[in-house]
Structures are given as structure tokens and as C-alpha cells.
From TrEMBL:
Pfam families tied to this protein: Amidohydro_3
UniProt domain Amidohydrolase: residue ranges: 70-554
Name under which the protein is recorded: Amidohydrolase
Chain residue ranges for the region called Disordered: 1-23
SUPFAM superfamilies the UniProt entry points to: Composite domain of metallo-dependent hydrolases, Metallo-dependent hydrolases
UniProt-listed InterPro entries: Amidohydro_3, Metal-dep_hydrolase_composite, Metal_Hydrolase, YtcJ-like
Provenance organism: Streptomyces pactum
Biased segments, Basic and acidic residues type: 13-23
Length: 555
């Protein structure tokens, strides 16, 4: 090697820009804990030209020390694969990070104060954008009225999405910008907008975001992801969610800016060759993500077999089984991954029936090989769990939903009643059946928070749905790669992409849901690599360094 060997600590060299391209260098990391199935007791790792070259013991690392460009002394830090967040809305995440986020508002009055302050701070914005209100957490138990929004904004246009992003409230000035809004389905004169009315208002609101403002938001979201040890995000875009310009702009930004990898999904139903060509031209890996079969529970738009406990209807169906079958058939024949957003039990059932119909046309093996995916998949029955396994459907799930809205007195119980609410998000049953899981946040619905996501899956509010920390961690790392058809990544073994994170963490343990798991599996002598203790109340690991393809993107 012609470059001089350097030495630095786990967070990286203070004199090196994290954006500097170091992907062609050979790096030895040593003196830590390397989480790898190749060697459960590994303390060192060599990265060469963006690929994991070797994993092993401290003693063996001496043989590499003189032949590398750089030695990173871990000082006991933990090295893991970088996380993959399998469901993100990047621009909306960035807008929430840099703008008006009502997630922390304790009541309606506090929310209105935040809106007023935001309006005063952004006098030049043609439309004010905000996110995150949740009236089920406020003592008033209602969202702001249009008159209250008009007063808080001084009569300016305001779009304010509910935490689940499936409904919103808007000021009069914004509604006046939307042609025909009064006649659209889902319009309510003084209540949250849903379905078609919501989509129309959202389109007008986001059309006001300038290219510079959009790029600023995207950079903020990608930076935050890197700071949290996230190496890859799955962007879930689509014509009813963002815009083609937003989607292609993000992919282009990610391709030229050091940061997490971005894998794009475009949620548009495929009915012919022109649709397939557009999906590919946009740079998407699949016609999937938030292709809506239904809405969300919090907004009473998830599609149910039986009425809501607190509303006399069964929600909203956007696609039926025939439409699902047509989409899956077209995508499978074209070699393109298909996928859907489905939350309610009727919506999940429609997906299963549609995919099964496609498999009867094309053959089960061909449909399974395509690895089609379902986002959220919250209200599953034993029959639909078995069908997911049979059809090879990946479940892209968000455990933080249960942490936020589960439990005996949570929003799920309010919407469905306690008995139905207890059936939601059955991760243990899904894993037992062989359903592939990929974990994500649906940010900004819930924040980017990978270790918090793993904790939420391991400490599910319904005990029988809990899975081990190891299983949840695998679903949040390797599971995300498998969801895009890559079985060779998301794990620290020779030949895998060098996507990893370095963590300041406490003692490493093998943490299981309950005492039914055999005791030998938690013994260090079993050879099972440990992970941080995620017991609720304990501090989560702190990211010191994130590397993507051998290139340091945070440190």
C-alpha cells in the first residue's frame, strides 16, 4: 500500500470530512464487538474497496495491521450491519424535521401556538405545511377547526396532516385554491379531510414546495438517517403521495451525495406497457409501496370486515381483489416487484385473494420468486398469515405503530375495541409461519428510530406477538435487503457490501420475548452474537459512525 497507515477511534478522524470518498481504502477495525454470523466472537473486521473482506479475532487481526490504509481502534464499541428502514417518505420527513411538527403538542392550545409561531417565522412561504397532530392524545379529543386554523395563520394557506397522513385539516385560504373541493368525496366543512378531498388538497399544498425547499428537506432527512446508523432507506413515493419531480429529485440527490442508499418504490397501478415504462423511467425498483388498498385506522379509512367500534362504517376500499390481481400479474410478467398498502382485515384479504388469483394465472413459483410486498399488514388472521407465507409476500411492518397506539387504552382499542385490537401486528405468528419481515418507520408517521423500532417489536404491547431482539434486528437489517431481492447484504460476512454502523452500547445480551425460549440460547457459550439490552427504560445505543459501501457518511 502506498498510503500511510493511519489510526483513529471509532467515531472517525476529526480531521476527515465524513463526505470524503474513502470507499477505495482498506480499513481494519479492531478491539470491539463485531456482530457477525461468520464468527460470533469476532472483535475485528477488514473492509476492502467497499466490501467486507474478513471478520475474525483480535489475535488474527495483527496479520492485517501492516497492510491496510487505516486502522480504526474501536475501544470496545459495537459494530453491526447498518439498518435498513423499509418504509420512508423522505421529503415529508425532512419537512417535519425542519418545519412544523405537532407530534409533541400536549393539547389543542399548544398545537395552535406552534402553528402561530411557525406562520410568523415563515412569512414568505406560499403554503404553510405541518404534520403530526393526533387528537386521540389531546384532552379536547378533537382536531382544530377551520376557524381556529384561520386565526392561527392570519388567514394564510395551511395544510396540516394527521399523524398517519391519511387525513388532514386545512385553512380556508388553502381550500380556496383547490378547484371543486366542496364536491369531492371526503370533504367535511369543519372536520378532517379524507380520501379524494384529502388527496386533492395535499397535491395543491405540496405543489407549493420549491425545488430548493424540497432538496433542503431531503438532505435533512438523509442526514438524520445517517446519524442513526441507517444505511439504506426505501422511499415510498407515488402520484397520490408526492410527485414525479420529488421522487426523481431524491434519487438523483442520493446518487451524488454521501449518505444512505435510497431504493425507490413508485405506487402506481400498472395496467399496461406504458405504466411499466414510466415506473422504470422514474428509477423505481417496483410498482409498490403505498399503492393504497385502504387507508389508516386513526383516520377511520382502513377497510374492515366489521364496522369500527367508534364509527358506524367499515372504512374505505381503494382497490379490490381483481385490481390487485391485474397489477400483480402485469408486474410479475414484466419482472417487476409489486406491492400494496393494506392495513384493515378486509384490505389484507383483498390483497391475498388478488395475489392468489395472479398465482393461479402465472404459477405459484413465479409469483413467489417476484417477492411482492405488503406495507403495514396490521390486521392479519391466522388464514391471511398462512397465505402470506404460501404466496411469498414480504410484510413491510412498523413496530412503532404498536408502541404508539397499541395497548388496552390506545388508539387501536378505541377504533376497534380491545378484542380486535389485541390481534394487530402479530409478528411472532408471522415469523413462525415463515413470512419474511422488513422493519421500517413510515417516517414521518413515526420517527426514524431503528433501535426503538427493534425494541417495539421485542416488547410488543400484546405479549404473544413479541419476537426476540435478534429476530427484530435481523428484520431491520438483512430483512430490508431481502425485501428488494438481495440475499447477500445486510450482514457482516466476507463478500457483503460494507454497510455498517459503530455504536456506543452497554453490555451485550441475547434477549428473548419470554421464558418459553430454551435457556441454552441465551448462554454466551451457545455462540449466538449478543446485542444491546433493549429493555424499556434502558438507554438506546448511540451511533458513532455510519459507513455505506465502505464510505463514511456519518462520524
Amino acid at each position: 500500500m502506498t498510503d500511510p497507515t493511519t489510526s483513529r477511534g471509532p467515531a472517525g478522524d476529526a480531521h476527515r470530512d465524513p463526505g470524503e470518498d474513502d470507499s477505495r481504502r482498506t480499513v481494519l477495525l479492531r478491539g470491539g464487538e463485531v456482530h457477525s454470523p461468520a464468527d460470533p466472537f469476532a472483535t475485528a473486521m477488514v473492509v476492502e474497496h467497499g466490501t467486507i473482506a474478513w471478520v475474525g479475532s483480535e489475535g488474527a487481526a495483527d496479520g492485517f495491521a501492516d497492510g491496510v490504509d487505516e486502522v480504526v481502534h474501536l475501544d470496545g464499541a459495537l459494530v453491526t450491519p447498518a439498518f435498513t428502514d423499509a418504509h420512508v417518505h423522505t421529503t415529508s420527513t425532512g419537512l417535519a424535521l425542519t418545519g412544523l411538527d405537532l407530534g409533541g403538542a400536549r393539547d389543542l392550545a399548544a398545537a395552535l401556538e406552534l402553528i402561530s409561531a411557525h406562520a410568523a417565522a415563515r412569512p414568505a412561504d406560499p403554503v404553510l405545511l405541518g404534520h403530526g397532530w393526533d387528537a386521540t392524545r389531546w384532552p379536547e379529543r378533537r382536531p382544530p377547526t377551520r376557524a381556529e386554523l384561520d386565526r392561527a395563520t392570519g388567514g394564510r394557506p395551511l395544510y396540516l396532516s394527521r399523524v398517519d397522513v391519511h387525513s388532514a385539516v386545512a385553512s380556508t385560504a388553502l381550500l380556496d385554491l383547490v378547484p371543486g373541493i366542496l364536491d369531492r368525496p371526503g370533504f367535511h366543512p369543519d372536520g378532517p379531510l379524507t380520501t379524494a378531498a384529502h388527496h386533492a388538497v395535499r397535491a395543491v399544498a405540496f405543489a407549493a414546495v420549491s425545488p430548493a425547499q424540497r432538496a433542503e428537506a431531503q438532505r435533512a432527512a438523509l442526514t438524520r438517517a445517517a446519524e442513526l446508523g441507517i444505511g439504506t432507506i426505501h422511499e415510498c413515493g407515488g402520484p397520490e403521495i408526492s410527485s414525479e419531480e420529488d421522487f426523481t429529485g431524491l434519487l438523483e440527490l442520493a446518487s451524488r451525495t454521501p449518505g444512505p442508499r435510497v431504493v425507490g418504490y413508485w405506487a402506481e397501478a400498472v395496467t399496461g406497457a406504458a405504466d411499466l415504462a414510466r415506473v422504470r423511467e422514474l428509477g423505481a425498483v417496483g410498482a409498490a409501496g403505498d399503492l393504497f388498498v385502504d387507508g389508516a385506522l386513526g383516520s377511520h379509512t382502513a377497510c374492515l370486515h366489521e364496522p369500527y367500534a367508534d364509527a358506524a362504517h367499515t372504512g374505505t376500499a381503494y382497490l379490490d381483489a381483481d385490481a390487485v390481481a391485474a397489477h400483480v400479474t402485469a408486474c410479475t410478467e414484466a419482472g417487476l416487484q409489486a406491492g400494496f398498502h393494506a392495513i384493515g382485515d378486509a384490505a389484507v384479504d383483498a390483497v391475498v385473494r388478488g395475489v392468489r388469483e395472479a398465482s393461479e394465472r402465472l404459477g405459484l413459483a413465479r409469483v413467489r420468486a417476484a417477492r411482492h410486498r405488503v406495507e403495514h399488514a396490521e390486521m392479519l388472521t391466522p388464514e391471511t398469515v398462512a397465505a402470506f407465507a404460501e404466496l411469498g409476500l414480504t410484510a413491510s411492518v412498523q413496530p412503532a405503530f404498536d408502541a404508539a397506539w397499541g395497548g388496552e387504552d390506545g388508539m387501536y382499542a378505541e377504533r376497534l375495541g380491545r378484542d380486535r385490537a389485541r390481534t394487530l401486528n402479530p409478528y411472532a405468528a408471522m415469523l413462525r409461519a415463515g413470512v419474511p419481515l422488513a422493519l421500517g418507520s413510515d417516517s414521518p408517521v413515526t420517527p426514524l428510530d431503528p433501535w426503538g423500532t427493534v425494541r417495539a417489536a421485542a416488547f410488543h404491547r400484546t405479549p404473544e406477538h413479541r419476537i426476540s431482539v435478534r429476530a427484530a434486528f435481523t428484520a431491520h437489517t438483512r430483512g430490508g435487503w431481502r425485501a428488494v431481492g438481495r440475499d447477500d447484504a445486510g450482514v457482516l460476512v466476507p463478500g457483503a457490501p460494507a454497510d455498517y454502523a459503530v455504536w456506543q452500547a452497554g453490555d451485550l445480551v441475547v434477549q428473548v420475548p419470554d421464558t418459553r425460549v430454551a435457556n441454552w440460547s441465551t448462554d454466551p457459550r451457545s455462540g449466538t452474537p449478543g446485542l444491546p439490552d433493549l429493555t424499556p427504560g434502558t438507554p438506546l445505543p448511540v451511533c458513532l459512525r455510519t459507513v455505506v459501501g465502505g464510505r463514511t457518511v456519518f462520524g
